[in-house]
Amino acid sequence: MKENHERMIRIVDLHKRFEDHQVLNGIDLEVGRCETLVIIGRSGCGKSVLVKHINGLLKPDRGHIYVDDEDITRLQGKQLFRARRKFGMLFQGAALLDSMTVGENVGLGLRHHTQLSEKEIRNRVGEKLAQVGLSGLESKYPAELSGGMKKRVGLARAMALDPQCIILDEPTTGLDPIMADVINELILKLQKDLCITSIAVTHDMISATKIADRIAMLYDGRIIFDGTPEEIHRTEDPVIQQFINGSAVGPVKPV
Amino acid sequence: MAHLLAFIGRKTISFVKYVGGVILLLGRICKGLPRLFGDRRLLVEQMSLMGVNSLPLVLLTSVFTGAVSSVQAAYQFKNLVPMRYLGTAVGKAVVIELGPVLTALVVAGRVGASIAAELGTMKVTEQVDALETMAIDPVPFLVTPRFLAGLIMLPVLTILADFVAILGGYLVALLFLQVSSHTFLSGLKMFFHLGDVMAGLLKAFVFGGIIGIIGCYQGFQTRGGAKGVGQSTTRAVVISSVLILICDYLLASVLF
């Protein structure tokens, strides 16, 4: 965590096992308020599993996650839902509710949690969709959208309730390079203008370098690197070098 | 031997887990009830899907059920029982047993399967997780409307099914069995008890609940893509059909 950031999330000794596969094996990590942390690692190494613990979608086998000094792993029912209101999440496959229109998807949280009038909700939805460059798509169904558009709607939905922290699971995967950069710029803007904490999971090094205040690399169930983008490019660790240079040759076997 | 014991043990544990899971889900539905009154749109939508859209199939099944029960009863009565009891036999069989059970089995196949498939797909594509991250409890949002729609619509469908089935039996008696309209109707009225209809509707109420809760539970248990959704759908139909038949027996022994 950078020194000028107040701490928002603290992950302590997190362990998670699925059947006979130890996915997380003692994760310690901190995220500061208004900070953008990018978690990198190979596909299937447990990045998504890690972030799903942060908003309590998964429960760890061992360890704690403190969000504003409240242990989210111990919360249940109403308390957990209250704690989740601090977070917005963009899923890898966008996870839009396919029985609802784009407008209903983005406005769902607002309808459920606020007393805003229909008109105010429509305005807010329009505003959020405009931010991701999708104005006027309110009445479309998710099945009518391309993968990249779904992802942007997912981002608009994640931001709809003005969360303190957004969790982004592969925000730029599947987008063309130009749209990927639009999303990167948007994440930077959110951080700068609204002081939103972002935790992004990706294996897109260009995006990671651009948006990250800090990069953490997950390998073999542990965080093997935690530092700034400049530091990761300078490191001599062969595993990290192999990953950020995208090489098939090195200590990590491409299985 | 050890394998057999392990097998029995595993099956017992998974059975207890299943029952426990369904009971917990029922508990969460009850807790979510007050929320639903704020948003009746979800309930109305499910009632329409479950009730109105099932109507053609239920009525088609019923008309033939009534017709066949008329034919079968007439065959069994031949030279043994006077034909004026044909209406009684058809009416009783339909109202007490055939109407509620066949309607429930048809709806279990049609609606139970579609609930499991829909919720299963939502589960594997992380839509259920997405609701959770928006701090929206998926149970009041997805399960409660479907469960309540089952409870409400199955008795409604059953009333219509009863009516159409008796009509089917009546027409067959009139047209093919040489039983006069007066004979059939007087037989129907002779031993007609409103209590029988109510008992049939109570059965339908229970069956509706079974279809809703098993479809939803099975949907939420779905793992692993299209294959998992297929398995959940099949299991929803099989488990709810078996439960309907078992509960039918239990209710019959209590009610009559």
The gist of it:
The complex is a heterodimer of chains A (255) and B (256). Chain A is an alpha/beta fold and 255 residues long.
Shape of chain A: globular
- Taking pLDDT < 50 over at least 5 consecutive residues as the criterion, the unreliable ranges of chain A are none
Q: How large is the count of helical segments of chain B? A: 9
- CATH first level of the largest domain in chain A: which class? Alpha Beta
Shape of chain B: elongated
Count of separate DSSP helical elements of chain A: 9
| Total discrete domains of chain A | 2
What is the CATH superfamily classification of the largest domain in chain A?
Answer: P-loop containing nucleotide triphosphate hydrolases
Rounded to an integer in angstroms, the radius of gyration calculated over CA atoms of chain A is 18 Å
The total count of strands of chain A amounts to 10
Q: What is the level-2 CATH architecture name of the largest domain in chain A?
A: 3-Layer(aba) Sandwich
Distance linking N and C termini of chain A: 33 Å
Strand order, sheet with most strands of chain A: 6-7-8-3-9-10
Give the topology, please.
The complex is a heterodimer of chains A (255) and B (256).
Chain A: E1 7-18, E2 21-32, E3 36-40, H1 47-54, E4 62-67, E5 70-71, H2 77-84, E6 87-90, H3 102-113, H4 118-131, H5 147-159, E7 165-169, H6 177-194, E8 197-202, H7 205-211, E9 214-219, E10 222-227, H8 229-234, H9 238-245
Parallel strand pairs in A: 3-8, 3-9, 6-7, 7-8
Antiparallel strand pairs in A: 1-2, 1-4, 4-5, 9-10
Helix pairs in contact in A: 3-4, 3-5, 4-5
Chain B: H1 2-38, H2 40-50, H3 55-77, H4 86-124, H5 127-133, H6 138-176, H7 181-190, H8 194-220, H9 225-255
Helix pairs in contact in B: 1-6, 2-6, 3-4, 3-6, 4-6, 4-7, 4-8, 4-9, 6-8, 8-9
